[in-house]
Amino acid sequence: MKCKLLVAEDEMIERKVLCKTLQKYLGDLILLYEARSGREALEIFARESPQVAVLDIEMPGYTGLEVAKKIRESGKPCGILFLTGYDKFSYAKQAISVRALDYLLKPYNEQELVSAVEDAIRQTTAQPLPRPAPVQTAPPLLREEDEDARTTLIRAEMYAFVEAHYQQDISMQDAAAALRYSDAYFCKLFKQCFKVNFSAYLNQYRVDKACQLMQDPRLSLREVATACGYADANYFTRVFKRLTGQTPSEYRNTLMH
Predict the structure, then answer these.
(1) How far is residue 204 CA from its own chain's centroid?
(2) What is the pTM of this model?
(3) Taking burial as the number of CB atoms within 10 A of a residue's CB, which of 43, 171, 240, 246 is the most buried?
(4) Using CA atoms, how far apart are residues 255 and 253, in angstroms rounded to an integer?
(5) Cα separation of 121 and 243, whole Å?
(6) What is the pLDDT of residues 56-115, one digit of tens each?
(7) DSSP one-letter string for 9-60
(8) 135: burial class by Cβ within 10 Å (0-12, 13-18, 19+)?
(9) How many CB atoms are located within 10 Å of the residue 167 CB?
(10) For the chain, which domains are there?
């Protein structure tokens, strides 16, 4: 069954680009609903009960945050992702109570968008698994002006988390909690450090690892997928083809010739 996906964005061009990109990569997985305002988003939600909603934070009438709060008050399950710009990031910090799955920071590229939505679809349909334990060591205190040292330290912490946990079923929220950041602030810091959002970076990291493992002919493709954090082989194949242009089978065949 296809996942019902709601996109709420008041800027027509932004909304059309969003929807066109999602249809291009996820068209076989989703039924897409477009909303031009927060009020229309709530009407669609009440009528269609979408499992995932991508909400622009700045909309006339009801903001994305207000829409998300009303979605939570309805009691219906829905994975929520926010669209926001750096200049509005203080606003996004208020969204903790609505348990957003991710924050897409403008400007974002196609891979960031698709990775975040794809992961939201997976999270809303998958059985929850144990989360990784929080990191115990606290980073040394740095002065605000020590920006280069601070950024280097934060990047190293984030990379270490991905390296240690990429084989597990982790999310942006897991990483933020383990490193003791709010979800919204973590998203901002992560994109500053790596130039892409967490979902896109994690998928690229896992696919790179998969390419390395596939050089060993003794490992089946399912074993490779599991070793790289993909419990669902179909999800692994979809992500791998989107990032490399080949299915895992096609990629392995090229290695053998």
Answers:
(1) 12
(2) 0.84
(3) 240
(4) 5
(5) 18
(6) 998 988 999 999 999 999 999 999 999 887 667 666 667 667 888 888 888 888 999 999
(7) -SSHHHHHHHHHHHHHHHTTTEEEEEESSHHHHHHHHHHH--SEEEEES--S
(8) middle
(9) 14
(10) 3-125 (3.40.50.2300), 148-257 (1.10.10.60)
